[in-house]
């Protein structure tokens, strides 16, 4: 592993620990704040995600947004590939997808204009540290090459780091929502 890979692995480990502590504390407020932000984009196609492990839960905001326009969830296509997004509804049937995340039983792919992005850690400049597979970076790069695409990080305050080690391929967030604030970059 090169130096940056080691630094990222250490930052990821620390981020997971902070996220677990925040998840265990069950801090309120984040879902409502996410709903408020999405209300300003009614009808615009978006993707959320099915929360796994200690990820902050966007499902209430996704359900609300689904009354106004298409909402999807990411479906991993394979290592080194961009994500595809399949249409999701609160009552829709789900199946097991890769890494323990549920995906719609029937694929109905579309390209969202807004992505609610899970993460391990973030910094005050819009840097995001994910799981290390590069799925969201590849996906955002491809979508942004076609049209403006809004990346909204969704996290607990505790997931903030002083600085995220970034590579040229890391795609920045446009906004970040936590239980206490909305940051725009």
From TrEMBL:
GO molecular function list: 5-formyltetrahydrofolate cyclo-ligase activity; ATP binding; metal ion binding
Cofactor(s) demanded: Mg(2+)
Pfam families tied to this protein: 5-FTHF_cyc-lig (PF01812)
Enzyme class: ligase
Organism domain of life: Bacteria
Any one GO BP annotation for this protein: folic acid-containing compound biosynthetic process
UniProt-listed InterPro entries: FTHF_cligase, FTHF_cligase-like_sf, NagB/RpiA_transferase-like
Gene3D superfamilies found in the cross-reference section: NagB/RpiA/CoA transferase-like
Entry EC number(s): 6.3.3.2
Key words, A-Z: ATP-binding, Ligase, Magnesium, Metal-binding, Nucleotide-binding
Substrates-to-products reaction catalysed: (6S)-5-formyl-5,6,7,8-tetrahydrofolate + ATP = (6R)-5,10-methenyltetrahydrofolate + ADP + phosphate
Record bears the keyword Magnesium: yes
SUPFAM superfamilies: NagB/RpiA/CoA transferase-like
Ligase found in the keyword field: yes
Entry-linked NCBIfam families: MTHFS_bact
Family: Belongs to the 5-formyltetrahydrofolate cyclo-ligase family.
Protein name (record): 5-formyltetrahydrofolate cyclo-ligase
Source lineage: Bacteria, Pseudomonadati, Pseudomonadota, Alphaproteobacteria, Rhodobacterales
